[in-house]
Design a protein that fits this description.
Length: 580
């Protein structure tokens, strides 16, 4: 509406803006001046009320009109979804439905977004069916919003089918598919979609790069992460707090913690996610003192820490043996910030005490602080400490508790078997293994990834499907011979205890970590760049020892990211200082 032709009533609404008090006053003037039933004015009033977070008032205004139209409720549905009021958006959608008024594609787009925000899959499916029934099944805006919905609800196969059906995909559709895969633990698939986007010559935006960097962080795809960084810099993109945090997180989780800190220091705006990502990065790399130093700086200069920040801080303390600092952080969590500890915080504290060899304190903490029966996460942390510090009696007790809690979890049976084996109770080992066979329980298969030239290579124990298998095994044999001459002796306790000593050494030799490291060294002979390997499980004791020797005899830094942390092997030493 042209400003010169606006009515005084419409101008009063604009003057009130998205503020509930002034809007109610403007509404009263409309009624007094006889404009209380003007549909355009009521639509503007109700829409502004939604923007003011006064959705119940907007609903009252809209439903009080004697002849509401489709545009009124469609506008309210869109406004509510836009202003993160998903329940209100659904209520306006249902009002439109009950009034048998016509629908538009934008109404379905808005209500699908509301369902995505609520992760309301069942309602979302009904809305999807309704949109198809009314002929909007091929509308690209509706399809895009449905891709977002199904991606957020973990229905990736459905999301992908809908994504493939969109003829002219917007950047929102591409972003939804990339982030959908990444948020559901399928980072490699997300990276594939980003590469498809490049082939399609679609123009990315900052959220594309945020989602792709998150996928790179999860997958350890450092080369692609660096490529995305170069593109951000060359295109002089606005460095939002989200994009900056994504860069910090990517470099931290890909093993380049110094570069992560450079980005952290360059950012003009840092939110709690940025600070937490950097603290967690230091913790993962064993730089506990740096994590604590940054946490103290955050308390002085940054935003208030949240629950996730404290998980990162306590984990950093656990992996660096900083018991006093961990106690202080846990204490100030509730006392200073009013944050009630969750199971992750309790687990981190127990892990910290356990790794430091303070098993009695760990058990006392469980008794004094954890309300109710501790969950399996807590007992798993204690069990790991029992194995590390060879407290086999407590280890057996804890493992049996875990099996009682989750009898079908194979990892607990494996841990119990290992505890029995380490304590020399081989008849108990046999009993546990027979139970696993009887129940058809299988331990998780380990694998290691190494990225070379932008291509990921996956190895499993005894892997022979790689096209260079023969060369890899020959190289590894020579490498094992060299480190043996340097003093390496296999830790045969790391494998099945029913094997004979010679068989154990053979099983250890071809673990996935060793194959991946050997391949990396073989393919980069003469280079000085670090070898980077990702392991999906915790690195075994023998591989940890062997790679320390490999770093020395090859004079190369070798970085392994396992399930729990980073290990930087250099000159025969590891950054974890045996806190792993």
């Amino acid at each position: 509406m042209d400003s010169q032709h606006r009515s005084p009533e419409y101008s009063s609404l604009l003057l009130a803006g998205p503020r509930a008090g002034p809007l109610k006053q403007a509404h009263a003037r409309l009624v007094v001046t006889g404009h209380g039933h003007s549909l355009p004015l009521i639509t503007k009033l109700a829409t502004l009320a939604v923007a003011a977070a006064a959705a119940p008032y907007a609903h009252l205004v809209a439903t009080s009109h004697p002849a509401p139209d489709s545009f009124l409720f469609s506008s309210l549905t869109r406004a509510a979804a836009h202003h993160s009021l998903p329940l209100a958006a659904l209520a306006f959608y249902r009002r439109l439905l009950s009034a048998a008024l016509p629908f538009s594609s934008f109404t379905f787009t808005a209500v699908a977004k509301a369902c995505a925000d609520l992760s309301a899959l069942r309602t979302g499916k009904a809305i999807h069916a309704h949109s198809v029934l009314l002929g909007f099944g091929s509308d690209r805006f509706v399809l895009t919003s449905l891709v977002v919905l199904y991606s957020k609800c973990g229905q990736l196969a459905v999301a992908r089918n809908l994504f493939d059906a969109i003829r002219d995909r917007s950047v929102v559709a591409w972003n939804a598919m990339i982030s959908g895969y990444e948020q559901n633990g399928l980072a490699e698939r997300g990276i594939e979609v980003y590469k498809e986007m490049q082939v399609a010559e679609a123009v990315p935006d900052s959220m594309t790069f945020v989602a792709t960097l998150s996928a790179c962080a999860q997958a350890g795809a450092l080369d692609l992460g660096r490529e995305v960084e170069r593109r951000i810099v060359s295109e002089r993109m606005d460095m939002s707090v989200f994009l900056g945090s994504a860069l910090v997180n990517m470099y931290a989780r890909c093993g380049v913690v110094d570069k992560a800190r450079k980005w952290f220091d360059m950012l003009q705006e840092r939110n709690v996610v940025t600070w937490t990502s950097m603290i967690a990065g230091y913790g993962m790399h064993g730089h506990g003192h740096e994590a604590i130093k940054l946490f103290r700086l955050m308390r002085c200069e940054g935003p208030p820490p949240n629950h996730v920040t404290f998980i990162a801080v306590l984990s950093a303390c656990a992996h660096a043996g900083l018991v006093m600092e961990g106690r202080d952080a846990f204490s100030c969590m509730k006392r200073v910030y009013g944050l009630v500890p969750r199971v992750e915080h309790y687990c981190s504290m127990v892990d910290m005490f356990g790794r430091a060899g303070l098993l009695d304190e760990a058990m006392q903490f469980v008794h004094d602080y954890i309300p109710g029966e501790p969950g399996p996460e807590v007992w798993t942390a204690i069990l790991g400490a029992c194995k590390m510090h060879k407290n086999f009696n407590l280890g057996v007790e804890v493992a049996e508790r875990l099996i009682a809690l989750e009898p079908e979890n194979p990892s607990y049976h494996v841990l119990l078997s290992n505890i029995y084996a380490l304590s020399g109770k081989m008849h108990h080992v046999e009993k546990v293994r027979n139970t696993m066979i009887k129940r058809r329980l299988k331990k998780q298969i380990g694998f290691s990834l190494i990225e070379l030239g932008g291509t990921s290579h996956l190895f499993r124990m005894g892997e022979k499907s790689h096209r260079q298998t023969r060369e890899i095994y020959q190289y590894l044999e020579k490498l094992i011979h060299r480190i043996t001459a340097a003093g390496y002796m296999p830790e045969t306790e790391s494998v099945l205890h029913e094997l004979e000593e010679e068989e154990r050494e053979g099983a250890l030799r071809y673990h996935s970590e060793k194959l991946a490291v050997a391949y990396g060294l073989m393919m980069s002979s003469g280079s000085t760049t670090p070898i980077r390997v990702i392991k999906n499980l915790r690195i075994c004791g023998d591989c940890h020892l062997a790679i320390k020797f490999m770093s020395a005899v090859e004079n190369r830094e070798i970085i392994v990211r396992d399930k729990h942390r980073f290990h930087h092997f250099k000159d025969g030493k590891c950054s974890c200082l045996e806190y792993w």
